[in-house]
Amino acid sequence: MAAKGKTAPTVKVQQGNPLTKWFTRAVVLLVFLATYSWLDTIKDRWYVFNPKSLHELAQAAIAAAPSPDDTTFMVQYIAANLTATYPSSQIALNPNTSEWVISNAGGAMGAMYIIHASITEYLIIFGTPLGTEGHTGLHTADDYFNILVGEQWAFAPPNLEMERYPAGSVHHLPRGYMKQYKMHEGCFALEYARGWIPLMLPFGLADVLSSTLDYVSFYHTARITGREIIKNLLIGKI
Ligand SMILES: *[C@@H]1O[C@H](CO)[C@@H](O)[C@H](O)[C@H]1NC(C)=O
Ligand SMILES: *[C@@H]1O[C@H](CO)[C@@H](O)[C@H](O)[C@H]1NC(C)=O
Hints:
Blueprint: H1 2-42, H2 51-64, H3 71-85, E1 100-105, E2 108-117, E3 121-128, E4 132-135, E5 141-156, E6 159-166, E7 170-173, E8 180-195, H4 201-212, H5 215-234
The structure holds 2-acetamido-2-deoxy-beta-D-glucopyranose (NAG) (2 copies).
């Protein structure tokens, strides 16, 4: 009886709590949204690369290549140019052009070499000599797909015509847009994304968890991405 009498007031106190609890949650949510909106307006100051010079670099790599399908040459040309252009105190780059990982995302399959990854930017070479097709993903970043070898096709309703991106062109997918795309036959591209990169990672890893179960590629993708993001944070590159 005594024990029951003691527990009753505690129950009453807990019944009074939910309002405070929900108020606290609402405040936390508002602070989070306000911080996100503020960071979103200033994120441009952390960008190091720019779409125009990367497009010029992609075109220069194509022009310098001994043949239009010499992907290896173009990749080495691009990595050498970037490491010579950007000081290592400003941005960390991965100079190892042999470090390719299998990538499955949005139903498409290929391989990628991660040149750079940080919180607000990434730069990769993505492609396959076989061709592939899938969903671009719906992203919190702007995406610039600089075609190096082959051709990329895209479809975005209500425009029922096929969009065509040959080598040397750039396919810009603005943040918040999505398309169906196809790398008809072999195609490789220099892909630059700027925006909130960590929010893009679930798209890049979902196919592994729901379909391929390729935990080896999953491990290397997570390891290399994490390593590059940390290397950049250590020199103050967000
Ligand atoms: C890198 O490529 C750009 C674009 O082609 C060119 O303007 C620049 O001179 C190159 N830099 C180096 C160090 O090769
Ligand atoms: C480059 O990457 C390849 C593949 O992961 C690896 O075998 C090699 O040791 C790396 N080279 C250097 C210099 O880190």
